[in-house]
Design goal:
Blueprint: E1 29-35, E2 38-47, H1 53-64, E3 69-80, H2 82-92, E4 97-103, H3 105-117
Parallel strand pairs: 2-3, 3-4
Antiparallel strand pairs: 1-2
Length: 129
């Protein structure tokens, strides 16, 4: 059964301090589905410290509902910073795994750099794929 997590399945509203409307970047979009312990998430737009907050809430909700594996489609992400990598690292902290189904150039560059530089505790672990 494909169960969407509806609380965050829409375009995100403007955030305080973040540009909104035609002058600012397009609002990031998050689509998700939970099926048999697998949380599938599709991202589009720009993801930084502020715009990753709803994604963090979604991942927390998915984990609370029993998701152990994250499948991420980030082919339509136009910009991302280390906030996205930190969220993936946080996801694996509970013994969960993740894989990148597809990623934009921005996402691939971020994850390659994260793998190379790593952190004191190591880079976010992902399933081979």
């Amino acid at each position: 059964m494909n169960t969407p997590i509806d609380s965050i399945d829409t375009a995100l509203p403007g955030l305080v301090g973040a540009p909104a409307g035609p002058a600012g970047p397009p609002a990031p979009r998050i689509r998700s589905a939970l099926d048999g312990g697998v949380l599938s998430v599709r991202l589009a737009g720009e993801f930084d410290h502020f715009s990753c907050l709803p994604l963090r809430a979604l991942l927390d909700e998915g984990a609370a509902l029993g998701a152990r594996r994250l499948v991420l489609d980030a082919a339509r992400v136009t910009f991302c910073d280390s906030s996205l990598a930190h969220l993936l690292d946080r996801w694996t902290g509970g013994g969960r795994s993740w894989e990148l189904l597809s990623g934009s150039r921005s996402v691939r560059l971020l994850l390659d750099l994260w793998d190379r530089v790593g952190r004191a505790d190591g880079a976010p672990e992902r399933e081979p794929g």
